Amino acid sequence: MSVYSRKKDLKKREECIINGFDKTKKMFPVWPKRLEWGLMEHRAPLRAIQYMADLYWDNSDYTKAEELFRLLLGLNPNDNQGVRYEISAMFAGITGDSLNQMFDEGNSGQNWDKLERLVDIQNKKYKFWRRPKDC
User: Is residue 103 within 8 Å of residue 115, measured between CB atoms?
Assistant: First the structure.
């Protein structure tokens, strides 16, 4: 999928995302209660769900994106994927590219306070994530 992103072949990228998500839904006709990141076999389906949520977000289908982001936060409550940042950005009207820039800034200065404030503000409004006690 990222090969198609680099090649700017958005149609092929979208096909791969939809195909991966469809395969994931076949694996899980009913979503499990937990699908935590710590187990390697869970990572591909979690990524497939996240890529589909991102695609919905990119296409301004915020309702479907929110549904999948919330699903991910329920399946993987420790949020090793950083979904809380994506849903926060979406609610705040920040684009995925702008969110990536915020991460780049945080990484370069080793300070992610701006991202954490974004999550705190949006989570107070929309109540999408319960911060684990050890987080």
Answer: yes
The DSSP string of 79-132 is -TT-HHHHHHHHHHT--HHHHHHHHHHHHHHT--HHHHHHHHHHHHHH------
CA distance linking residue 98 with residue 89, whole number of Å: 9
DSSP annotation of 28 reads -
* Number of residues assigned to the chain: 135
The residue among 26, 70, 27, 17 whose CA lies nearest residue 47 is 17
Question: For 39, which DSSP code?
Answer: S
Does this model's pTM top 0.70?
A: yes
Cβ count near 127 (within 10 Å)? 9
pLDDT of residue 9: 75
Domain boundaries, the chain: 2-126
pLDDT digits (tens, 9 = 90+) for 18-60: 999 999 999 999 999 999 999 999 999 999 999 999 999 999 9
